Amino acid sequence: MADTYMRADGRRADDLRPIRFQNDIAPHAAGSTLIECGNTRVICGVTIEETVPRWMKEQGVEGGWLTSEYSMLPYSTLTRKPRDISKGKLDGRSSEIQRLIGRAMRAAVDLKKLGPRTLMVDCDVLQADGGTRTAAITGAVVALGLAVKKLMSAGKISENPVVESVAAVSVGIVSGEPMLDLCYVEDVAAEVDMNLVMTGGGQFVEVQGTGEKANFSDAQLTAMLALGRSGIARLLELQRAALGA
After folding, report:
1. Does residue 38 belong to any structural domain of this protein?
2. Per-residue pLDDT tens for 34-62?
3. Of 175, 149, 176, nearest to 160 (Cα)?
4. Are strands 118-127 and 65-72 parallel, antiparallel or unpaired?
5. Quick check: is 32 in a domain?
6. Angle of helix 218-242 versus helix 132-153 axis, rounded to 10
7. What is the residue range of 192's domain?
8. What's the rounded Cα separation, in Å, for the pair 28 and 94?
């Protein structure tokens, strides 16, 4: 059923939204891209600091570090979202998402090959229409690849520290049907909502799944995982094309 069920935007249940990368959107970043997943748009940028966190120095940990920050710009949603600084603290959702992005990105990198430096990954949502965290991860990998190319071209590292490809996508159950890459109207209506982060080798980095309005069966879980795998395989191809590989 997943390959024939038609959605409100004309997609089949197993279709991704149109994906586009616009590289070098932020010229002062070491690597950057604007990823568009349908109407969701996220700027992903990587900057490089020639130092490592204090805890790494104190514990004598070799190599470098990678961390991330995530934010939704005030005009990214239908109603204005106040900046976190106006509330004096990072909201729980943003904190959870940026930790997810960091974990996903570190799964792609051999930190020892990075050398004693820190890669800062910033993901800023320009427009939110569902799947901002998965778009951020998928786009950040492209920005990372561009930044690493600059490091290698400058002779600062001799080996590519990116040892694995990583991408992310949402899946869910909407009106009883398993669907891939949920937009906002599908996300809010979903009985089950799940985010998958996977490597190019087919291994899971993270699985976030919740029965929002209903429980789900083994068969539904299997169907969602199959949709997610196929979607991530396509996203990995698009990443490679964006990096000119």
Report:
1. yes
2. 999 999 999 999 999 999 999 999 999 99
3. 149
4. parallel
5. yes
6. 30
7. 19-242
8. 24
